[in-house]
Amino acid sequence: MRRLAAIAAPVVFVILLLAGWEVACRALAVPSYRLPTPSDIAVAAVQNLPLLASSAWNTLSTALLALVWASVFACALALVVAINPLIERAVQPVVTTLQVTPIVAIAPLVTIWAGLDHPERAILVLAVVVAFFPIFSGALTGLKSADPDLERLFDLYGASRLQRLLRLRLPSAVPFLLEGHKVAAGLALVGAVVAEFVAGSGGAQGLAWRILEAQHRLETAKMFGALVVLAAMGVALYAAMQAAEQAILRRWRGR
Predict the structure, then answer these.
(1) 44-93 pLDDT, tens per residue?
(2) Are 221 and 43 in contact (CB under 8 A)?
(3) DSSP the chain
(4) What is the pLDDT of residue 49?
(5) 246-254: long-range pairs with CB below 8 Å, 24+
(6) Which residues touch 88 (CB under 8 Å, ≥6 apart)?
(7) Can you say how many angstroms the Cα of residue 168 is from the centroid of all Cα atoms in its chain?
(8) CB 133 within 8 A of CB 188
(9) Interval 93-129: pLDDT, tens
């Protein structure tokens, strides 16, 4: 009963919010171009569903590809840094500076470097930059979280740096790696959308471009429809990453 109530509570709350939104817009005669009703948004989303679905796939595929590249770069750098503390001191300021720099600030430069005729390249690079730091930070923290008693045991047996890394630190970093990837997945999606906004080109044809296109035509309901699709995609991606994390951790803890 409690589980059913826990599931029903947010659903009922959202329904009440949408109902209040609908009633308020109709009672106050709010123009649809300023704030459409939920029913208008639903109609616009259904009417433009094929176009929104195609754009959503373009955005999602870019975000997933960016996540893969960010994972490769971040994990490789974290492994190198974990072996040699001097390298960590050398690269940490650069990585931190890159993390605290707003992506919007460097997006115009990346767009120029990637070529104005190839906005998809700039979008991919910017999404990789956004997703890089959570994975790198999680991997580095995990590689340093090995049990001190096991560290001393490896010292006792004269283990090499590579053996210590592969057999002790890397297994200890699994939970941190999974958490970093879960956070980075959402950030990669955000980075792809923000980068497409800044690129300002229809070459990528993602959800951000649909929002810009609808904005120029004052099709506010279509804009909300694209936002709903984007939000649903983000929630689904996060849920998939969380499910994968739980499944891997169950097996990892069992071993």
Answers:
(1) 888 888 888 888 898 899 899 999 999 999 988 888 887 777 887 888 88
(2) yes
(3) -HHHHHHHHHHHHHHHHHHHHHHHHHHTT--TTTS--HHHHHHHHHHTHHHHHHHHHHHHHHHHHHHHHHHHHHHHHHHHHHH-HHHHHHHHHHHHHHHHS-HHHHHHHHHHHH-TT-HHHHHHHHHHHHHHHHHHHHHHHHHT-S-HHHHHHHHHTT--HHHHIIIIIHHHTHHHHHHHHHHHHHHHHHHHHHHHHHH--TTS--HHHHHHHHHHTT-HHHHHHHHHHHHHHHHHHHHHHHHHHHHHHHHHHH-
(4) 87
(5) 248/174, 248/178, 249/174, 249/175, 249/178, 252/171, 252/174, 252/175
(6) 81, 82, 140
(7) 29
(8) no
(9) 888 887 777 887 887 888 888 777 777 888 888 889 8
Rounded to 5 degrees, what are φ and ψ at 200?
60, 35
Cα–Cα dist 81/132, whole Å: 15
Please report where in the chains the tokens 């919010």 appear, as a residue: 17
Confidence (pLDDT) at 150: 75
So what's the pLDDT on residue 168? 78
**What angle do the packed helices 207-216 and 220-254 form, to 10 degrees?**
160
pLDDT for 200 beyond 70: no
CA distance 225 to 40: 9
Contacts of 86 (CB under 8 A, 6+ apart): none
Structure tokens at 118: 């190839």
